[in-house]
Amino acid sequence: MEELIYVDRRNSNCNKWDGQTAMFGEEGLHAMWVADMDFKIPQCVQKALHEYVDFGAIGYYRIPDGYYDAFINWEKKHFNFEVKREWLRFAPGVVAAFNWMIQMLTKKGDAVIVMTPVYYPFLQAVTNNERKLITSDLVNENGNYTIDFDDFEKKIVDNDVKAFILCSPHNPVGRVWRKEELKEMLEICHRHHVYVISDEIHQDFVFGDKKQTPSYLMTEHWDEILTITAPSKTFNLAGGQNSFVVIADENRRAKWDSHIKTIAIFIIQLIQKLFFSPCNLPCKMCFFFTHQIFLLEPRDKRLLCHTFFQFSHSNFSRSYSHQDSPCKSSATLL
């Protein structure tokens, strides 16, 4: 089993530690982000990086078969989701992907709905693209968040919503949506001809008896849904700027491909060669890296979470309070 090794990233041009003044107006805060962890990356990734640098020539290359195979195998093994290779597309991060999807699926002035509280780039993606932001608040019942389906559907109808950005599992409230919840959301969207953009980047961060279900498995209307995920959260590779776009419908894929041509982005990224070709990352050694924390006993997870937030309580970002920490609100995940 691979050991998790802590790295002090201060004074390394690390955004969350060395950019606090720009973001929060002061230094010395405790950066408790989950977007990038202060653990070393898996050993097989480090090995692949060394091998590529030692090779000495960093030029253009084709995307290796292992890039696709690793993701397809991972989804089948962990979620029983059979992804076909032709469904897969690339984006340099899920944020870029859902921005592009908003651009290709809606027009300026169209309404796009999100469930709040939610990851703030969801909100920015709507407003920055000159769409109308519609929010449906999740219901907080003692730290456990649920969906107000009546409010969700009413706002879709009243505002003629064209697209829904779904966060599954939900960031930041820590909910793993049950199958019946996903099915109801998707059925509402189908009734009212709403595209679903499903961000599933936290799919591997599920504990206990909770089960993550890909959105595609909860609907027959694959022409209405597009999914995004990435290895960055699972394997601590945020700096690699790589995400998978899953589009099962042929017409939607054609629309994606046409839109990407207007952006003219190179789909050849270093991470595709380093993290998938040499070691078939998600299918081999890195599985053990991912599950180091997951395999802790429930009481140890609670202790770990409690310790982190006791440590951070005295000097945490003013954006949060100790009472609102993910240790409390993410009870479903943990």
The gross shape turns out to be globular
The pLDDT mean sits at 83
What structural category characterises the helix and strand content?
A: alpha/beta
Give the DSSP E fraction (strand runs of 2 or more residues). Answer: 5-15%
> What string gives the helices and strands in order?
HHHHEHEHEEEHEHEEHEHHHHH
Distance between the termini: 22 Å
The quaternary organization reads as: single chain
What can be said about the biggest beta sheet?
7 strands, mixed
**Care to count the β-strands?**
9
Which runs of at least 5 residues are low in confidence (pLDDT < 50)?
A: 275-285, 299-334
Write up what this structure looks like:
The chain is an alpha/beta fold and 334 residues long. The protein contains 14 helices and 9 strands. The strands form 2 sheets. A 7-stranded mixed beta sheet has the order 1-9-8-7-6-2-3, with helices on both faces. A two-stranded antiparallel sheet has the order 4-5. α5 (94-105) runs parallel beside α6 and α5 crosses α10 (250-263). The protein is globular. It starts with 14 loop residues before the first helix and ends in a 5-residue tail after the last helix.
